[in-house]
Amino acid sequence: MNDSDPDLPEDTTGPTAAELEAVGQNALFGEPAPAPGADPAARPAKSTAPPPVATNQPYRVLARKYRPQTFSELIGQEAMVRTLANAIARDRLAHAFLMTGVRGVGKTSTARLIAKALNCVGPDGQGGPTIDPCGVCEACVAIAEGRHIDVIEMDAASNTGVDDVREIIEQVRYAAVSARYKIYIIDEVHMLSRNAFNALLKTLEEPPPHVKFLFATTEVDKLPVTVLSRTQRFDLRRIPAPMLAAHFAKVCGLEGVEAEDEGLRIIAAAAEGSVRDGLSILDQAIAHADLDGEGRVTAARVRDMLGLADKSAQRRLLGHLLEGDAKALLAAVDEQYALGVEPLALIRALMDLTHRITLAQVSGGEPDAPAEEERAALADFAARMGAAELHRLWQLLLKGHDEVRTAPDPLVSLQMALLRILHAGQMPDPGKLAKRIEELAVSGAAPPVVSGLEGATPSAPHVTAPTLDWAALVSEVDRAGMLHVAEVMRSRVRVIELAPERVMFEQADNFPDDPAPEIRDALFKVTRPSMQKRAPPMNASDQTRWSRPRSKHSPRLNCSVQKATWR
Question: How far apart are CA 251 and CA 244, in angstroms?
């Protein structure tokens, strides 16, 4: 019918809505390619069928393409999967789950798998919650594609306020539309503000029975304790490097790419326990390998791509440091600096080598290194160096790291720190020196003592032994004219010990002054009158050492006359 006149017949000669839409699409993206054998000049016939779906989908990176769709594909988290399986089997499902761990271990993927496990109805539509979702029912497919109306994903980094949480609080009152549970997945939940957390607490503690909360975060320490106490926490651990290498080999098989085992081990070590990081590096390595047409991921190309070719240079630098070759050491440092290696990164690399050598020496096993050449080199260092030497090297490197980090010129600080370590390595080990001294003390080995004329040079004068009679010494002092000192020695002093190099005496309590200096000078004059003029001035070590040990009876003065003053 015609809109202007309902009695007129409908106009069927004009273009249809589909043709108009096609014209607009062609104007933007160009005419579609003609079918094989068709006349390009012929006008296509009108068709009311929907346009065909494009088959040339854009490339998906490996980290998204091989995201786990079932718990059996989730690697390295067996304890969590076992706990969830038992909870589902016993119908003891918590109302809130918290997944925490480092980046790329599967926190968000685990939250989606839990959502699929709780809402799966099976291929026949009669199933219940299961740890092995079918993946073919409408709920599983919609959750995997991220379009399920009852599974709401929210990024807390961009929805941090109370208003965003208020929307959740208003929506939880309504039942799920088509699923068994309404599930809220909040990623990076630690980014919520304090007020948002406080607003969510009541709903989080007592949600409706049809609502489940799934939280994911990399910084669990930033969550309030009140939130942690209302959730079941799962700590997703780092994936071990051997397990990552096996997983990457499986992905390479699915992609039809050949890869060396050593290259995959290097990628697994660089991933640092993160599956997503490892798959991203593997994606890059595959693209890098295709440059020359080989299509093979080799260890050499992976090292070159990751900048790990300088590992051998770092080992050479450590070798120069241990061998004491200062010129080669400085030349190696300058070479690395010219290649763009920062001084702080260089000293960190030396610390990492020292740490791995120490662990290999303690465990007695194979060093932790992805390449065979590096393992052999670290094993050689572990065999040649001692434990004390390694620990001293670590302490010196740690001190050098702090200096390089805070120095105004990091390169100069690095050179000086490495030179200090080089010279310290040439010094004898303190532990060995102490042990040698103990051995000499036990064996009784000591320098021989020359007595009389035995072993003396012809020009050496004979020195007589001093008189060890205190009364005679007092008389000598009296005859020398030092009457006051002689009277002090006779009336105020009681000798306790008299030896060629030591005099210990006690004086009366009613004399506060110290007679030790006067007695020392007097004994020096009467015992060595011939050496008095040519004797050098006494230093602090030749002076009389004395102290007064207090007791409840009387003070005692210990006077020790050194060899230089009384012989």
Answer: 10
Q: What is the pLDDT of residues 87-117, one digit of tens each?
A: 988 888 899 999 999 888 989 999 999 999 9
Q: What is the pLDDT confidence band of residue 508, given thresholds at 50, 70 and 90?
A: low
**Beta pairing partners, 213:** 96, 184
Q: Confirm if 486 and 474 have CB atoms less than 8 A apart.
A: yes
pLDDT (tens digit, 9 = 90+) per residue, 477-497? 888 888 788 888 887 777 777
User: Measured between alpha carbons, how far is 92 from 88 in angstroms, rounded to an integer?
Assistant: 6
Instruction: Determine the Cα–Cα distance for residues 84 and 117; give it in Å rounded to an integer.
Output: 10
How far, in Å, CA of 357 to CA of 377, rounded? 9
> Per-residue DSSP letters for 102-150?
STTSSHHHHHHHHHHHHH---TTS-----SS--S-SHHHHHHHHT--TT
Between strands 96-100 and 232-235, the pairing is parallel
| Contact (Cβ atoms closer than 8 angstroms) between residue 238 and residue 105 | yes
pLDDT at 299 over 60: yes
Of the ranges 12-26, 117-131, 494-508, the best mean pLDDT one: 117-131
| pTM for the whole structure | 0.60
Q: Report the side by side order of strands in the sheet with 493-499.
A: 493-499, 502-507, 557-560, 545-547
Residue type, 126: Q
Of the candidates 486, 464, 468, the one whose C-alpha atom is nearest the C-alpha of residue 477 is: 486
- Rounded to an integer, the average pLDDT of 120-141 is 88
509 close to 535: Cβ distance less than 8 angstroms: no
The Cα 188–Cα 154 span in angstroms is: 9
